[in-house]
Amino acid sequence: MRKIKRLFIVSLLLSGVFCNSCKKSSTTTDTTTIVPSVPGEYVGSITVYSKTDTLLPYFLKKNFVKITGSIGLYTSDVIDYNKYLVNLRSVTGSVRIYKIPNTNLSFLSKLTKITGDLQISACPGLTSLAGLSSLDTLSNNLTIENNPKMTSLSGIGAVKTLYNLNVTGNLLLQSLFGLSSLTSVANSISIGENPVLTSLDGLTNVGKITSNVVLYNNALQSSLTGLNNLLSIDGNLTLNGLPALTGLTALNKLNDTISSISISGCNNLTNLDGLNNLPHIKKDMRLVNCSKITNLQGLTKIDTIAGTFEVSQLPAFTSFTGATALKGIKKDLRIVECNSLNSLNGLAKLDRINGDFIIEDNAALINLNGLDGLKLVKGKMQILYNGQLTSLAGLSLLKTISGNIDLYYNPKLSSFCALNPDVFSGIAYIGFNAYNPTWAQIKAGSCSK
Q: Whole-prediction pTM value?
């Protein structure tokens, strides 16, 4: 009987051990199941820094056709990439090519899909993208930069969409031929520092750019030809350092609101023809340092600038003709160093400035005629360093100024009689003019000398 009891206790103890072993410990971590690659697929990234790297021979031995990861070729060593990569068809990641000595990209001739970026930088022998003719899917960015012999982008295949297009610092690049299948850019285009690029031919079928268009420091770019079918830019248009640019007429199909426009260093541009169908600017409009701009012809439909409107360093600018529909500016109006401007003609419908109103250093400005409808300035008003300004004629309907008034260093300014707001919430600072009345004198009628 004692023996049977002992066996029963042992049985209970053993059953407890086994049951406890079936319970999940609070400290147990589930292990991740690793899904093995399918035949022909390499899981991981391939980076080659020299011809002694052993990864390429391994790649050849296994005859991989797909990389689930990225590939980077970062060496000027002579390597027969055709031997190793000629069967590659898909890269679920990015392809980055830097300084390779090859004269073409034929070793990628069967590549049809890149899920990440394609970046080709500082490759001394490439003259085009020849070798990429099978590529039809590029899910992220295309970057072509600092390739000293590249003359076009021909050879890339039928890629229809990109996230970003960056083309920078290619000394002999003459055109964007090769991108004719491209229809949309989901984010931005940035094209700059290409000294012999003359136009944007190659982008002819692009209808929409979701964010920004930035064109800068292309010394021979004389037009925006290539953007002729562009219907919308949902971000900013920046044209900077394009001294040969003569017109914006290639943008005449743009008919949707744009976030902001910044044009500077475009010294052959005389007006803004080409922007005629834009109804509204959601942020800023800046026109700076363009030596031949004479007026704003081309802004015909724009009734509101919902940011700052700046015209400055425009030596040939004579009037605001073209901005005849402009009614409101939601931030600042800045008119600075426009030395051929003698009045503000063209702004007759402008009735409100919700920020600051700044007129500074305009050598030929005589009066402010042309602002005959202005009723409200919510910020400060500064009129400074205008050598020929004699009166404030043009401000007679301005009834509300919420900020300070600064009237300084206008050596011929002697009449303030047009300045007679009903509501003025700031402080008037007046000095170094031909006549310097106090605010009390102006309000009392002693407004001119």
A: 0.87
